Amino acid sequence: MVLAVLTLLTVLYVPASAKETVIDDDTLRVEATALLSDLLEQQYKANETGTLIDTSEILSNTPGTELYKQYLYWYSGLTAATQEYWTEYDYDLRFDSIENGTAVFTADLSYGRAGTIGRSEGYGFEYRVQIEEQDGKYYISYIDSGEMNFDGFKTLISRGRNEEGIALASEDINTVSVNTLDALIADYVELTEKDAAAVIDPDDVVDMDAQHAEYLASLENGVTIEPASTSYSYDGERGRRYADLYYTTGNDACFYKAKANCTNWVSQCVWAAYGGWTDGDTVSTMQANIANRKRMQPSTTMDNWFGHKNGISNPWGNVSNFYNFVTGSPATGPKATGKNDGKKWSGNFVSTEIVTGQVLQVRNGSSGKYAHSVYVTGGRNDSIKNIYITQNSPYSKIKLDELIRNWGADSSCYLRQLKFTSANFDK
To answer: What pTM was estimated for this model as a whole?
Structure first.
């Protein structure tokens, strides 16, 4: 594989035969749709065998395609080395618009992996494609995407995101050497080997999906009674239910959509788990509850915990502020116990410690700020490959091992945990 990719990743150039002509929008739409569809069909099919596809008839040799070629090498290397081949996949690619010579597409993707339960899923992410003509044939000359695995690759090789926590575009990320790509693959292999070798007490394994099925059944059998006191329990199953209903699109009718939206999303799930939301609430009911700051704090200071249609407070939407707030024993507002702050995932956690309703935060490396928050939403905690986490930016429900892989894998993923307890609220 390495020898094959040395040719693929050589110094790139623009052939002299490439025409410096403007491509009209109709041609761009038709040709970009055909090229991207061909690329994805070959790419996803190859993931069933861990094969590196030949993109010479699809991607031109330009700087705008180099990062994506490296991603294909990295991901095919992961699947081949671990034999976590895709067992099935579905995707939906939709043309969206033309923006200054760039074809924009929206897509959904789901896939299963050998040795894991269920599927990983992503919704509403973009592909952005530019094309060029060479000797009467069209090629993709630039490609970027928010697809969860490519997004994870960009996060991994750039060691995080920008200072605002927003995923970087392809042109803002430097490519790496083949040796570095091979080292990243080996690091993930070590992560999977340690997970497989972990000593798990069968009595500690939780089938979180079975628990959630019982929760859903209980909703059909009775009406939830609101407690009369100002102290409220934390119901992770309710938080998961909210996450399951809204993670594919976001609850944008009721909450502000931030550019870096991960912790804003997590706060919504926590808000729901404390009773700010009840299954079956209409948009108008949710909007009224939010306006009344039900299971929130007043919006009198940005240091309080609250969110609404027009904005979010610092603890509601910022990774570090959220952690510091909930672990700081606030008189009112969400309350949690933190674990593993400032420590690597590897060697400090057993998968059975993670259950539905917890919040996890990650960074890549021993220094710097934690940069991403996710919500635990089920699966089975006998392995990090079977635990689901839901995240925003992008909208996706993936496995915990995929999250850890994207944030430094075995060598440099720093992951901390928040376990929520009963808390006081004015409303």
So the answer is: 0.92
